[in-house]
């Protein structure tokens, strides 16, 4: 009986995408509006947030599928803050609870980044610079820059589907 071997090296190549980090203190919906206005796109919030660790950390996500150029744009928050109460036992008559705020990040390597704009298409350098410069023209944004997604340790967190 003949043995057939399938070689799938080319099938599972890394997905090419452009990743832009955005430093901004605005809420996600306001920044999505400004990105829509300045980039000429139509980001819409998804009905459900990205859920990691079974609800322990959720990240807001907006996306837009450009049917003309077959490109998907995703705008996602990098920061998740959760509040919990911790019981403190002192030798007293009253129970004390302390509020604890825990911060988690979608991409832990970039803890100071507030948002990421992921474009599921590898643009040439001039188009990528044009997008970053358009984002930098928004007065409320402190800074924005491109990130090489192939160098990230937690790049699996950027798979949104």
Instruction: Name the structural class.
Output: alpha+beta
What's the CATH class of the domain at 18-48 and 59-79 and 107-150, please?
Alpha Beta
CATH architecture annotation of the domain at 18-48 and 59-79 and 107-150: 2-Layer Sandwich
Classify the fold: give the CATH topology of the domain at 18-48 and 59-79 and 107-150. Answer: TATA-Binding Protein
Q: Helix and strand string, N-terminal first?
A: EHEEEEEEEEHE
**Portion of residues in helices?**
10-25%
Low-confidence stretches: none
Q: Could you walk me through the main structural features you see in this protein, from its secondary elements to its overall organization?
A:
This is IPExxxVDY family protein. The protein is an alpha+beta fold and 161 residues long. It contains 2 helices and 10 strands, in the order βαββββββββαβ. A hairpin with a 4-residue loop joins β5 (61-66) and β6 (71-77).
């Amino acid at each position: 009986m003949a043995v057939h071997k399938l070689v799938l090296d080319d099938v599972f190549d890394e997905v090419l995408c452009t990743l832009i980090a955005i430093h901004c203190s605005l809420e996600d919906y306001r920044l999505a509006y400004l990105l829509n206005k300045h980039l000429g796109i139509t980001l819409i919030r998804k009905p459900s947030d990205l859920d990691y660790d079974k609800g322990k950390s959720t990240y807001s996500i907006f996306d837009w599928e450009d049917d003309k150029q077959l490109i998907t744009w995703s705008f996602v928050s990098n920061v998740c803050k959760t509040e919990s109460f911790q019981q403190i036992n002192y030798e007293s008559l009253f129970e004390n609870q302390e509020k604890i705020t825990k911060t988690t990040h979608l991409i832990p390597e970039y803890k100071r980044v507030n948002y990421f704009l992921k474009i599921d298409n590898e643009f040439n350098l001039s188009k990528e610079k044009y997008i970053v410069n358009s984002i930098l023209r928004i007065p409320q944004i402190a800074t924005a820059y491109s990130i090489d997604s192939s160098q990230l340790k937690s790049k699996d967190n950027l798979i949104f589907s």
